Amino acid sequence: MSARVKICGVSTPAALDAAIGAGADYVGLNFYPPSPRYVSAQVAASLAARAAKHIPTVGVFVDAGDDFLADAIAAGQLDAIQLHGHEPPERAAQLRSRFGLPVWKVLSVAGPEDIASAAAYRDTADFLLFDAKTPAGSALPGGMGLTFDWGLLAAYKGPLPWGLAGGVTPANVADAIAMTGAPLVDVSSGVESAPGIKDVDRIAAFCKAAQHI
Question: Which residue range or ranges hold the N-(5'phosphoribosyl) anthranilate isomerase (PRAI) domain (predicted)?
Fold first, then answer.
């Protein structure tokens, strides 16, 4: 089985073009300032113009305020909002109502209880993304190349469409999909040569591995 692909943390025209050329289904624009993949409103606007009509853009946010979100959504011409912080179901519902965009909620996973927490977002989010939980005190909530026990998702039948993130690479994405049945895989550091620096060849290899199983 193949999976849809999201290339997250795209910050340059070359990376965007590589994602489009490789047949990725989404690109993620990171609006979290501490991240090495952060894009300013100006950069996001330039990338959005380049992505228009070619690939949907998903904005990545961490516990962001409404005004910050509004500016980023406008600049990036976003097709969806990805919440990667501690946003509760009520916040997801509020943002979906205010901005009229699909809300993707990232759930940080260390054990089965984290998978079970997906049920709380049944009526407030549109898509769930299971990512590896980062160590306590980490500056970033994701994008660190960490994995979790994919076996936790082997029999997952949740309330919403979902995807897998966290430590997937061109080398292991086929195994990840086979083990979990993930209908979408999200990659960031796994297609980079250094933090925040996307590698066009790795993007192509990842998409080929995920989409041609």
Answer: 5-208
User: What pLDDT does residue 206 have?
Assistant: 98
Residue 172 and residue 3 in contact, taking contact as beta carbons nearer than 8 Å: no
Please tell me which residue in 8, 186, 199, 207 is annotated as part of the active site: 8
Cα dist. 56→61, 138, 148, 207 in Å? Answer: 16, 29, 27, 16
- pLDDT recorded at residue 141: 53
Give the chain's domains with CATH numbers: 4-211 (3.20.20.70)
- pTM equals 0.93
Give the span between the Cα atoms of 146 and 144, in whole angstroms. Answer: 6
Q: Catalytic: which of 63, 67, 126, 131?
A: 131
Annotated catalytic residue 67: no
> CA 153 to CA 54: how far, in whole Å?
31
CA distance 37 to 62: 13
